[in-house]
């Protein structure tokens, strides 16, 4: 009688084990991918309940049992984990066990305008677009409430930023802003003596102009010297990218003589000194060039128009006119 009871008990245990194994290892086809979102300090109990409620796994108790057996129940790392359309409870557990939440990369390029940066972030998939409807001013108040100038142009460092999937887009802005603060601060602290910039913000403005005016990396320090030398003698910067920025949506790919004469706060042909704000997002090299112009006494430059992106630099107007005849007029 005892042997028969043990036999039936064994059969029962094997059936339970088989059932648990099926619930744990048999994939469930959910028809589409799914994201498991684990909050900070969230345990396996609430995660498994959400998975079961959403119909992603067959049974939450099988997942919890496996988690406790493997010691995973209190080792969950916060983040968002992407699961394939066909997955098992064991697959979910292994994904969580890896402790590597999915991330999203956002690439911001040097010379880009802030408006373009916002467009890229707003179109980035797999993140929350919490700031999409905000004005630029509201965004700046949220990120840097103590900064009186609420214009965001130039204040965000161009780079690639990685954030957890399903996290807020404001994280990208905060990372880019903090990075620019750090890079600009370093450039300002290490700047060359005798520069005509009173504040780090003025250096940032100049870096943005250098970023837009430079077609070849080796020219940056010379372009910087041209603008520094012009400022030093009270000469207007007379740089086309600032005019283009001031034209806004009116710019259609070409600057006319009338555009150069039309006064805007950004027209450096009609106004002396720096523009009121940066005109783009400058990168590290442009910041360094603004802080360390070459020692040449250049006052002019013109593109060589040879496909290299290089410019020809001149010390005076006669040299510049000769360069224009050679490279632009081809005489």
TrEMBL record:
Q: What class of enzyme is it?
A: lyase
Listed name of the protein: Endolytic murein transglycosylase
Q: Entry's HAMAP family?
A: MltG (MF_02065)
GO MF: lytic endotransglycosylase activity
Write out the annotated subcellular location.
Cell inner membrane
Entry annotated with the keyword Ribosomal protein: no
Q: Supply the Pfam families for this chain.
A: YceG (PF02618)
Source lineage: Bacteria, Pseudomonadati, Pseudomonadota, Betaproteobacteria, Neisseriales
